[in-house]
Write a structure and sequence with these properties.
Blueprint lengths: L3 E7 L5 H12 L4 E7 L2 E9 L6 H10 L4 E4 L2
Length: 75
């Protein structure tokens, strides 16, 4: 299994509870290994995933489906 990372910029300000809920939602997606927000960069969601099972556009779509305005960074 190979692991890739994608960075997703979320435009809204998320509090601790919203960030935790979004991480949990992302963790439920097939192929997602570790979604995380880093302290001091709460608008950036880094998602480690298996590229054989998940695609960056699908991960972005999941964030948007959760109701957030977002975009991929560096893709």
């Amino acid at each position: 299994m190979s692991i890739s990372d994608v960075m997703i910029h979320i435009h809204e300000d998320l509090d601790t509870e919203a960030r935790s809920a979004l991480e949990a939602r992302m963790r439920d997606l097939d192929g997602v290994i570790a979604p995380r927000f880093n302290p001091g960069k709460e608008h950036l969601l880094l998602v480690a995933f298996d590229p054989d099972k998940a695609h960056p556009a699908d991960l972005l779509g999941a964030v948007k489906t959760a109701g957030y305005t977002a975009q991929l960074v560096g893709v």
